[in-house]
Protein backbone atom coordinates (compact mmCIF):
# COMPACT_ATOMS: atom_id res chain seq x y z
CA UNK A 1 0.00 0.00 0.00
CA UNK A 2 1.34 3.45 -0.95
CA UNK A 3 2.20 5.39 2.21
CA UNK A 4 2.74 9.08 2.76
CA UNK A 5 6.31 8.41 3.91
CA UNK A 6 7.07 6.41 0.75
CA UNK A 7 5.57 9.17 -1.37
CA UNK A 8 7.73 11.76 0.37
CA UNK A 9 10.87 9.65 -0.22
CA UNK A 10 10.05 9.28 -3.91
CA UNK A 11 9.45 13.03 -4.21
CA UNK A 12 12.72 13.83 -2.40
CA UNK A 13 14.63 11.46 -4.69
CA UNK A 14 13.06 13.11 -7.74
CA UNK A 15 13.82 16.62 -6.51
CA UNK A 16 17.48 15.85 -5.82
CA UNK A 17 18.68 13.11 -8.11
CA UNK A 18 16.89 13.88 -11.39
CA UNK A 19 18.30 17.44 -11.47
CA UNK A 20 21.62 15.88 -10.50
CA UNK A 21 21.63 13.64 -13.56
CA UNK A 22 20.63 16.57 -15.74
CA UNK A 23 23.36 18.74 -14.20
CA UNK A 24 25.99 16.06 -14.77
CA UNK A 25 24.99 15.44 -18.39
CA UNK A 26 24.28 19.06 -19.36
CA UNK A 27 27.01 20.89 -17.43
CA UNK A 28 29.78 18.65 -16.08
CA UNK A 29 30.20 16.62 -19.28
CA UNK A 30 30.00 19.54 -21.69
CA UNK A 31 33.06 20.33 -23.82
CA UNK A 32 35.42 22.80 -22.08
CA UNK A 33 34.81 25.54 -24.66
CA UNK A 34 31.09 25.53 -23.80
CA UNK A 35 31.53 25.51 -20.02
CA UNK A 36 31.85 29.28 -19.71
CA UNK A 37 28.79 30.25 -21.71
CA UNK A 38 26.77 32.77 -19.70
CA UNK A 39 23.88 31.00 -17.90
CA UNK A 40 20.39 32.13 -18.84
CA UNK A 41 17.55 33.47 -16.67
CA UNK A 42 16.29 29.97 -15.77
CA UNK A 43 19.75 28.88 -14.60
CA UNK A 44 20.12 31.97 -12.39
CA UNK A 45 16.60 31.53 -10.96
CA UNK A 46 17.28 27.86 -10.26
CA UNK A 47 20.54 28.75 -8.50
CA UNK A 48 18.71 31.25 -6.28
CA UNK A 49 16.38 28.46 -5.13
CA UNK A 50 19.27 26.09 -4.38
CA UNK A 51 21.02 28.95 -2.58
CA UNK A 52 18.07 29.32 -0.22
CA UNK A 53 18.08 25.56 0.43
CA UNK A 54 21.81 25.57 1.21
CA UNK A 55 21.58 28.47 3.64
CA UNK A 56 18.48 27.13 5.39
CA UNK A 57 20.15 23.77 6.00
CA UNK A 58 23.35 25.31 7.36
CA UNK A 59 22.17 26.01 10.96
CA UNK A 60 20.61 22.53 11.15
CA UNK A 61 23.89 20.96 10.03
CA UNK A 62 25.90 22.98 12.56
CA UNK A 63 23.52 22.18 15.46
CA UNK A 64 23.31 18.47 14.63
CA UNK A 65 27.10 18.24 14.28
CA UNK A 66 27.66 19.91 17.67
CA UNK A 67 25.25 17.51 19.40
CA UNK A 68 27.02 14.55 17.81
CA UNK A 69 30.42 15.90 18.85
CA UNK A 70 29.24 16.06 22.48
CA UNK A 71 27.83 12.51 22.21
CA UNK A 72 31.13 11.17 20.90
CA UNK A 73 33.06 12.88 23.70
CA UNK A 74 30.62 11.40 26.22
CA UNK A 75 31.07 7.94 24.68
CA UNK A 76 34.86 8.32 24.84
CA UNK A 77 34.73 9.38 28.50
CA UNK A 78 32.25 6.64 29.46
CA UNK A 79 34.51 3.89 28.11
CA UNK A 80 37.77 5.60 29.16
CA UNK A 81 39.17 5.61 25.64
CA UNK A 82 42.43 7.44 24.87
CA UNK A 83 41.89 8.20 21.19
CA UNK A 84 41.32 11.90 20.52
CA UNK A 85 38.39 13.23 18.55
CA UNK A 86 39.80 15.16 15.60
CA UNK A 87 38.17 18.39 14.45
CA UNK A 88 38.91 20.70 11.51
CA UNK A 89 39.97 24.28 12.15
CA UNK A 90 37.03 26.64 12.68
CA UNK A 91 38.19 28.80 9.78
CA UNK A 92 37.77 25.83 7.42
CA UNK A 93 34.13 25.24 8.34
CA UNK A 94 33.10 28.91 8.68
CA UNK A 95 30.48 30.16 6.23
CA UNK A 96 30.57 33.83 7.27
CA UNK A 97 33.38 36.35 7.39
CA UNK A 98 34.24 37.46 10.92
CA UNK A 99 36.25 40.59 11.64
CA UNK A 100 39.51 39.62 13.31
CA UNK A 101 39.43 36.04 12.02
CA UNK A 102 42.61 35.08 10.16
CA UNK A 103 42.82 32.32 7.56
CA UNK A 104 45.02 29.32 8.18
CA UNK A 105 48.29 29.45 6.22
CA UNK A 106 48.69 26.18 4.35
CA UNK A 107 52.24 25.43 3.22
CA UNK A 108 51.97 23.49 -0.03
CA UNK A 109 55.11 21.38 -0.44
CA UNK A 110 54.00 19.61 -3.62
CA UNK A 111 55.49 20.14 -7.06
CA UNK A 112 54.11 23.37 -8.50
CA UNK A 113 53.70 24.92 -5.05
CA UNK A 114 55.26 28.23 -6.09
CA UNK A 115 53.94 28.29 -9.65
CA UNK A 116 50.62 26.37 -9.83
CA UNK A 117 49.78 23.95 -12.60
CA UNK A 118 47.83 25.43 -15.53
CA UNK A 119 44.13 24.60 -15.53
CA UNK A 120 43.33 22.38 -18.49
CA UNK A 121 39.57 22.14 -18.00
CA UNK A 122 37.41 24.89 -16.49
CA UNK A 123 34.87 23.96 -13.87
CA UNK A 124 31.66 25.60 -12.78
CA UNK A 125 30.40 25.57 -9.20
CA UNK A 126 26.74 26.11 -8.50
CA UNK A 127 24.41 26.35 -5.54
CA UNK A 128 22.82 23.12 -6.75
CA UNK A 129 26.04 21.23 -6.04
CA UNK A 130 26.30 22.92 -2.64
CA UNK A 131 22.69 22.05 -1.77
CA UNK A 132 23.27 18.39 -2.63
CA UNK A 133 26.30 18.30 -0.33
CA UNK A 134 24.23 19.93 2.45
CA UNK A 135 21.38 17.45 2.04
CA UNK A 136 23.85 14.55 2.08
CA UNK A 137 25.50 15.97 5.23
CA UNK A 138 22.16 16.00 7.07
CA UNK A 139 21.48 12.41 5.99
CA UNK A 140 24.92 11.21 7.16
CA UNK A 141 24.70 13.13 10.44
CA UNK A 142 21.36 11.48 11.19
CA UNK A 143 22.88 8.08 10.41
CA UNK A 144 25.90 8.72 12.66
CA UNK A 145 23.58 9.90 15.45
CA UNK A 146 21.65 6.62 15.16
CA UNK A 147 24.89 4.60 15.27
CA UNK A 148 26.03 6.43 18.44
CA UNK A 149 22.64 5.87 20.11
CA UNK A 150 22.80 2.19 19.22
CA UNK A 151 26.35 1.85 20.57
CA UNK A 152 25.39 3.62 23.83
CA UNK A 153 22.26 1.53 24.27
CA UNK A 154 24.17 -1.75 24.28
CA UNK A 155 25.06 -2.82 27.78
CA UNK A 156 28.67 -3.92 28.05
CA UNK A 157 28.78 -7.65 28.62
CA UNK A 158 31.54 -9.90 29.74
CA UNK A 159 32.82 -10.26 26.22
CA UNK A 160 33.21 -6.51 25.68
CA UNK A 161 36.90 -5.73 26.03
CA UNK A 162 38.71 -2.45 25.81
CA UNK A 163 39.82 -3.34 22.29
CA UNK A 164 36.23 -3.96 21.19
CA UNK A 165 35.16 -0.58 22.58
CA UNK A 166 38.10 1.07 20.82
CA UNK A 167 37.09 -0.66 17.59
CA UNK A 168 33.53 0.68 17.91
CA UNK A 169 34.84 4.15 18.62
CA UNK A 170 37.19 3.93 15.61
CA UNK A 171 34.22 3.10 13.38
CA UNK A 172 32.26 6.07 14.71
CA UNK A 173 35.19 8.50 14.43
CA UNK A 174 35.98 7.38 10.87
CA UNK A 175 32.43 8.32 9.91
CA UNK A 176 32.84 11.57 11.86
CA UNK A 177 36.04 12.44 9.95
CA UNK A 178 34.39 11.74 6.57
CA UNK A 179 31.51 14.04 7.50
CA UNK A 180 33.96 16.79 8.51
CA UNK A 181 35.71 16.50 5.13
CA UNK A 182 32.37 17.05 3.38
CA UNK A 183 31.58 19.91 5.77
CA UNK A 184 34.81 21.67 4.73
CA UNK A 185 33.85 21.32 1.06
CA UNK A 186 30.34 22.60 1.86
CA UNK A 187 31.75 25.70 3.62
CA UNK A 188 34.34 26.33 0.89
CA UNK A 189 31.69 26.35 -1.82
CA UNK A 190 29.40 28.65 0.18
CA UNK A 191 32.24 31.14 0.71
CA UNK A 192 33.33 30.94 -2.93
CA UNK A 193 29.86 31.39 -4.38
CA UNK A 194 28.90 34.12 -1.90
CA UNK A 195 31.98 36.15 -2.84
CA UNK A 196 32.45 35.64 -6.57
CA UNK A 197 29.07 34.80 -8.07
CA UNK A 198 27.57 38.28 -7.39
CA UNK A 199 30.64 39.89 -9.00
CA UNK A 200 30.38 37.72 -12.12
CA UNK A 201 26.63 38.28 -12.33
CA UNK A 202 27.12 42.05 -12.08
CA UNK A 203 29.69 41.98 -14.90
CA UNK A 204 27.45 39.84 -17.10
CA UNK A 205 24.43 42.09 -16.53
CA UNK A 206 26.49 45.19 -17.28
CA UNK A 207 27.74 43.71 -20.55
CA UNK A 208 24.26 42.49 -21.50
CA UNK A 209 22.79 45.96 -20.88
CA UNK A 210 25.32 47.33 -23.39
CA UNK A 211 24.45 44.60 -25.87
CA UNK A 212 27.89 43.03 -25.48
CA UNK A 213 28.88 39.41 -25.05
CA UNK A 214 30.47 39.03 -21.58
CA UNK A 215 34.26 39.27 -21.75
CA UNK A 216 34.77 35.90 -20.00
CA UNK A 217 32.66 34.13 -22.63
CA UNK A 218 34.42 35.88 -25.53
CA UNK A 219 37.83 35.00 -24.12
CA UNK A 220 37.09 31.31 -23.57
CA UNK A 221 35.44 30.89 -26.96
CA UNK A 222 38.34 32.69 -28.67
CA UNK A 223 40.98 30.59 -26.95
CA UNK A 224 39.36 27.29 -27.91
CA UNK A 225 38.45 28.36 -31.44
CA UNK A 226 42.02 29.56 -31.93
CA UNK A 227 43.25 26.04 -31.23
CA UNK A 228 41.43 24.75 -34.30
CA UNK A 229 43.43 24.39 -37.50
CA UNK A 230 40.67 25.93 -39.59
CA UNK A 231 40.93 29.19 -37.62
CA UNK A 232 44.61 29.55 -36.63
CA UNK A 233 44.55 33.39 -36.52
CA UNK A 234 41.67 33.60 -34.06
CA UNK A 235 44.09 34.24 -31.19
CA UNK A 236 45.82 37.15 -32.94
CA UNK A 237 43.17 39.62 -31.83
CA UNK A 238 43.39 38.31 -28.24
CA UNK A 239 47.16 38.37 -27.84
CA UNK A 240 47.34 42.12 -27.28
CA UNK A 241 44.47 42.00 -24.81
CA UNK A 242 46.13 39.15 -22.92
CA UNK A 243 49.60 40.72 -22.84
CA UNK A 244 50.59 41.41 -19.21
CA UNK A 245 50.48 45.11 -18.39
CA UNK A 246 49.95 47.31 -15.37
CA UNK A 247 46.29 48.33 -15.37
CA UNK A 248 46.20 49.72 -11.83
CA UNK A 249 48.79 52.27 -10.77
CA UNK A 250 49.40 52.83 -7.08
CA UNK A 251 50.99 56.09 -6.00
CA UNK A 252 53.25 54.25 -3.54
CA UNK A 253 54.86 52.18 -6.35
CA UNK A 254 57.41 53.60 -8.83
CA UNK A 255 56.48 54.00 -12.49
CA UNK A 256 59.37 51.77 -13.61
CA UNK A 257 60.47 49.31 -10.97
CA UNK A 258 63.67 48.41 -12.83
CA UNK A 259 64.99 51.97 -12.30
CA UNK A 260 64.52 52.37 -8.53
CA UNK A 261 67.64 53.43 -6.54
CA UNK A 262 69.62 50.42 -5.27
CA UNK A 263 66.83 48.17 -6.56
CA UNK A 264 64.93 48.42 -3.25
CA UNK A 265 61.16 48.88 -3.41
CA UNK A 266 59.36 49.71 -0.16
CA UNK A 267 55.69 48.74 0.04
CA UNK A 268 53.68 50.63 2.69
CA UNK A 269 50.90 48.46 4.14
CA UNK A 270 48.37 49.76 6.65
CA UNK A 271 46.75 47.04 8.75
CA UNK A 272 44.63 46.52 11.84
CA UNK A 273 46.01 43.01 12.31
CA UNK A 274 48.29 42.65 15.33
CA UNK A 275 49.13 38.94 15.09
CA UNK A 276 52.93 39.07 14.86
CA UNK A 277 53.25 35.47 13.71
CA UNK A 278 50.81 35.98 10.82
CA UNK A 279 52.53 39.21 9.72
CA UNK A 280 55.90 37.46 9.88
CA UNK A 281 54.49 34.81 7.52
CA UNK A 282 53.66 37.57 5.03
CA UNK A 283 57.18 38.96 5.25
CA UNK A 284 58.55 35.46 4.74
CA UNK A 285 56.28 34.77 1.77
CA UNK A 286 57.42 38.01 0.09
CA UNK A 287 61.04 36.98 0.61
CA UNK A 288 60.50 33.44 -0.75
CA UNK A 289 58.17 33.97 -3.69
CA UNK A 290 59.41 37.36 -4.90
CA UNK A 291 62.84 38.33 -3.59
CA UNK A 292 64.31 34.88 -4.16
CA UNK A 293 62.76 34.45 -7.60
CA UNK A 294 64.95 34.26 -10.72
CA UNK A 295 63.33 37.45 -12.03
CA UNK A 296 64.24 39.45 -8.90
CA UNK A 297 67.78 38.11 -8.90
CA UNK A 298 68.31 38.98 -12.57
CA UNK A 299 66.79 42.46 -12.16
CA UNK A 300 68.61 42.95 -8.80
CA UNK A 301 65.36 44.07 -7.17
CA UNK A 302 64.01 43.35 -3.70
CA UNK A 303 60.71 44.26 -2.04
CA UNK A 304 60.35 45.28 1.61
CA UNK A 305 57.19 45.98 3.62
CA UNK A 306 56.82 49.04 5.84
CA UNK A 307 54.00 48.30 8.28
CA UNK A 308 51.66 50.93 9.71
CA UNK A 309 49.10 49.90 12.33
CA UNK A 310 45.56 51.11 12.97
CA UNK A 311 43.36 50.38 15.97
CA UNK A 312 40.75 47.63 15.53
CA UNK A 313 37.36 48.87 14.28
CA UNK A 314 34.87 48.13 17.06
CA UNK A 315 31.90 49.26 14.93
CA UNK A 316 32.76 46.82 12.15
CA UNK A 317 33.32 44.07 14.72
CA UNK A 318 29.83 44.79 16.12
CA UNK A 319 28.40 44.69 12.54
CA UNK A 320 27.40 48.35 12.75
CA UNK A 321 29.43 49.14 9.63
CA UNK A 322 29.71 47.54 6.21
CA UNK A 323 32.98 46.25 4.81
CA UNK A 324 33.20 49.19 2.39
CA UNK A 325 32.66 51.66 5.25
CA UNK A 326 35.37 49.85 7.23
CA UNK A 327 37.83 50.21 4.33
CA UNK A 328 37.12 53.94 4.09
CA UNK A 329 38.82 54.48 7.48
CA UNK A 330 42.20 53.43 6.07
CA UNK A 331 44.43 56.24 4.77
CA UNK A 332 45.14 56.55 1.06
CA UNK A 333 48.61 56.13 -0.34
CA UNK A 334 49.22 52.64 1.03
CA UNK A 335 48.09 49.09 0.53
CA UNK A 336 45.51 47.76 3.02
CA UNK A 337 45.46 44.43 4.87
CA UNK A 338 42.39 43.65 6.96
CA UNK A 339 39.90 40.92 7.86
CA UNK A 340 36.14 40.39 7.72
CA UNK A 341 35.63 39.05 4.19
CA UNK A 342 33.52 35.98 3.36
CA UNK A 343 36.50 34.78 1.37
CA UNK A 344 40.04 36.10 0.92
CA UNK A 345 39.99 38.54 -2.00
CA UNK A 346 41.33 41.84 -3.32
CA UNK A 347 39.27 45.02 -3.59
CA UNK A 348 41.19 48.01 -4.98
CA UNK A 349 44.30 48.51 -2.82
CA UNK A 350 42.93 46.22 -0.07
CA UNK A 351 43.62 42.55 0.56
CA UNK A 352 40.65 41.39 2.62
CA UNK A 353 41.21 38.15 4.50
CA UNK A 354 38.45 35.63 5.07
CA UNK A 355 38.12 32.19 6.70
CA UNK A 356 39.60 29.06 5.18
CA UNK A 357 43.12 28.25 4.04
CA UNK A 358 45.58 30.35 2.07
CA UNK A 359 48.98 29.41 0.67
CA UNK A 360 52.02 31.69 1.17
CA UNK A 361 52.15 32.44 -2.55
Quick structural overview:
The chain is α/β, with parallel strands linked by helices and 361 residues long. The protein is 53% helix and 9% strand. The protein starts with a helix and ends with a strand.
Poorly predicted regions are: 111-122
Extended strand count: 7
Percent helix range: 40-55%
Q: What integer value in Å does the Rg equal?
A: 26 Å
Q: Report the sheet with the most strands, covering strand number, pairing sense and barrel closure.
A: 5 strands, mixed
Structural class: alpha/beta
The termini sit apart by: 61 Å
Spatial ordering of strands, largest sheet: 3-2-4-6-5
- The fraction of residues assigned to DSSP E strands is 5-15%
Overall spatial form: globular
Helix count, per DSSP?
11
What is the residue-averaged pLDDT?
78
SSE sequence, one letter per element: HHHEHHHHEHHEHHEEEE
Amino acid sequence: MFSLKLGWNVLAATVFWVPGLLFNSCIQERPPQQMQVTPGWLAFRSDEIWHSFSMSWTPRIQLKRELIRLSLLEYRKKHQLKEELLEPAKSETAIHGTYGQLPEIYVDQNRGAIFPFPVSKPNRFSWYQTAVIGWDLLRRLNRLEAHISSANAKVSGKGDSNKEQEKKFDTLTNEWNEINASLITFAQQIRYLSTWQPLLLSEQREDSAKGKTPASETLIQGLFQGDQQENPKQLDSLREALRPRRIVKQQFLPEYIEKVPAGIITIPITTDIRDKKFLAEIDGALMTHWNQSSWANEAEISFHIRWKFLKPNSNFAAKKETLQRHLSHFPSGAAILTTGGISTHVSGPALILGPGKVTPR
